[in-house]
Amino acid sequence: MGTNDQTRSLPRGLRLVAVAGAAALTLTAGLATPLDPAPRQARAADDGKKVLTVAVAQSVDSLSPFLAVRLLSTSIHRLMYEYLTNYDPKDNHAIPGLATKWESSPDKLTWTYTIRSNSTWSDGRQATAEDAAWTFNKMMTDDGAATANGSYVGNFRKVTAPSPTKLVIELKKPQATMTALDVPIVPKHVWEKVSDFSEFNNDKSFPIVGNGPFVLTGYKADSYVRLKANKSFWRGAPKFDELVFRYYKDQDAAVSALRKGEVSFVAGSPSLTPAQAASLEGAENIKVNDAPGRRFYALATNPGAKAKNGKKFGDGHPSLLDQRVRNALFMAVDRKAIIDKVFQGHAVEGEGYIPPRFSQYFWKPTASQKLAYDPAEAARLLDQAGYKKNGDGKRVGKDGKPITYRVLCHATDPNDKAVGKYLQEWWGDLGIGVRLNCLDNVTDPWLAGKYDLAFDGWSVNPDPDFVLSIHTCGALPATPEDTGATDNFICDKTYDELYARQLAEYDPAKRADIVKQMESRLYDLGYMNVMAYPNAVEAYRTDQIKSITTMPAKAGNIYGQDGYWSWWSAVPADSGGSSDNASSTGVVVGVVAGVVILGGLGAFAAMRRRATAEDRE
Amino acid sequence: MTADATPALVEDKQQTAAGPRVRKGSAYPRYLAGKVAGAAVSLLAVLVTSFFLFRLIPGDPVKTMTGGRQVSAEQLAAYRREFGLDLPLWRQFTDYCGKALTGDFGTSYQFRAPVVDKITEALPNTLLLTGTAFVLYTALGIFLGTRSAWRRGGLGDRVNTGLALTLYSIPSFWLGLLLIIVLSVGIGPIPGMFPTGGMESGGKEGFAYVVDVAHHLVLPVVTLVAVEYGQTLLVTRSALLDEMGSDYLTTARAKGLRDDLVRRRHAVPNALLPTVTLIFINLGRTVAGVILVETVFSWPGLGGLFYQALSVPDLPLVQGLFFVFAAAVIVMNTLADLVYPLLDPRVAR
């Protein structure tokens, strides 16, 4: 009986583990097999193809150009579809895309574009004005199709294609941004079959028909996007055979992948950190590209939130309504220290609203206008404005209470926190308290106007219309309950007049001049104080990429350009293989290691079984 | 008296074999019904909680999604209408419940795809990673745990327990990064052997695809096993230590059984109950994924999806995921409850 009992009780524990294990294994193995729904038009890179692999930190939100809003997705659309116009990599001025030339009528309300006749869709059909007209009309008539880019057609009255090479757009009001319509033109014969634009993600059948420099051949959510060179692209075929965007959630891992050669390029999120850049500086075959960025990093002031209907809301500090106070606060901000200490040199000191990268619109304050770092002058201005220090050395508001400003900061942005600490020190010296309010999501207090100052920043486009529009009175919310497009509730009559004038000015030089006047006005108002223009710090392997076009061509960035220049122009290096080949030896070694581990486990199991068998005897 | 308990257990086993249907038949169905009903109530509670809980997250999904883009006030209003955010809360809630009961969790705000599709897309990836790791760390934990307990205080025990505790207390993302640097990029004489991240290289088919995925699987699995096996080891070890003084082991030894057999056939089976509890808890957690390890290795699983959903907040996706995570734990706990009486009939009594 004893033995009987033993044999039955012995395997129970083990059986349990085995059953649980087997269940999990079956479950996972069963599920693992149909894991890959993505079609495999793209072939492996072992056949000598030159593959350019880019590590990206973002996942694709949608592959439909009517829905996609993330930088990665819209950059990929640039590669898949031609837009009417493109931006010159040298200086960002508008140059031909699908349209070869364009002109406006004397009343400024009709634009006529000539569509090129040498652009074909990847299924062999000709791209025509009819495709462009259909794309715009769809966006004007279908809410779902207007999701991502609806704002571009808001002022369109009518769009027609009188001939395959002629596109006519009639406007409601003059609009100077007609050569900056960043709308992917899609093939009508493919897209007219789509029934619901609000839910069609364009990610089920490959290759996706397009006419850009690359054709999308494969996609797997949160893993990769694969494109192949469009050999018949009208501007000339790209030099690499394939372009792969590989998703890295962790940027330290992405940097490791670059170091290893698994990827050719890494951009960081949104940029490499100073530590990541420093670790790559001097590494063999790696070039760190520290380029002027397209963002500005500013300190926004609450000008007293109000709605279009005149109702005021929020609780911004009343002292900030005095321009002298705003200017004094900014004069006590040591921008050089911010560049050196916080950005560790990877940024440029702030001047006007638009970063110097956009040379056409870049503006700097004159010597007399400039609010240079001068704490003594700042203290004098505050005294003059009537905010004097009390016995404790604290400046007192009109209500008799010591002034403490609430500064809204993004908890996810280490720069905000670091600059915030400096503000506490600098403004503390002035006798003003600072309470940092760092939140994961600053939207709620921001929209409710419940803050005094806030860290702010925008990415600027080659056409500055949008970043200018968010400071007009027209962008205020209709009522306090609504949400407007406004950035921080600025509403200034002079600024608005200038905004309207630049939008109706079709002469680029004259328009740029008005834009600069707007920047000057914004600077003087002191509600938007630009502290820095952070650089785009990125890195690539020189043994995989021989040369690549930056934008601006002289000292510019590579990832997230306006246009397809970088990936289209990249030339493979002769020596080193492409990024995918580099890992093939790793695969072999890895498989061997895996087999050894599995073998070990097998041997272990076998030994145990034998032992049991012996025991039974 | 321990002597009482053990024979009872032995007796039960014999009865199970011989035909104890009468007693079990009356208790088990009632026990089963009670547990299943409890689970159903919990699931319902989760469904309700997931709706309200995530509406407490600060942030306006529409504003976050359109942030940094050119949008008019009309467009913002259109978004709100489309997502049903303009409806009163109670309407949103009844809509949500009605649909959720039919398995429809709505459409993700940011991906414009049905939540169910997004989840079924990522679920197999997570299960592959966590399932494989689960099998390995459970087996390793039980194996090493029993050895440790059996030779308590010996060098092997001290090394084993020390190592397990050290690994258990290491943050998984840190260990993952370290493994990437050492085994993926390569350091000194160690060559880079494994991919730095992701689940596949892309563009591979058939067997090459399976090998490719397995190759990508090694480092994240090793990371998970390293940080997780310690828990199973420690629980198994302490449970076995409790059993080791028992008289029935002395009896077994007295019968002349080898020490090895005494451990495997007598001590371990009786000591496994706490470990089984842990196994089921871990099994429930496998679905929730391992957000940090998934992030370090860019594994396209549910953990990463949950993080992306939370940052918007993409309410339908967050609710759907939360429900799936909670449901997995509830189902596994219920399963554990159902299995216990089979292991130890005293439970259902």
TrEMBL record, chain A:
It is found in: Cell envelope. SUPFAM superfamilies: Periplasmic binding protein-like II. It comes from Streptomyces lomondensis. Residues 1-31 form the signal peptide. Residues 95-469 form the Solute-binding protein family domain. The chain crosses the membrane at residues 587-607. This is ABC transporter substrate-binding protein. Belongs to the bacterial solute-binding protein 5 family. Keywords: Membrane, Signal, Transmembrane, Transmembrane helix, Transport.
UniProtKB/TrEMBL annotation, chain B:
The chain crosses the membrane at residues 31-57, 126-144, 165-187, 207-227, 271-297, 317-343. It is a multi-pass membrane protein. Residues 123-336 form the ABC transmembrane type-1 domain. InterPro entries: BPD_transp_1_N (IPR045621), MetI-like (IPR000515), MetI-like_sf (IPR035906). Residues 1-21 are annotated as: Disordered. Keywords: Cell membrane, Membrane, Transmembrane, Transmembrane helix, Transport. Belongs to the binding-protein-dependent transport system permease family. This is ABC transporter permease. It comes from Streptomyces lomondensis. The lineage of its organism: Bacteria, Bacillati, Actinomycetota, Actinomycetes, Kitasatosporales.
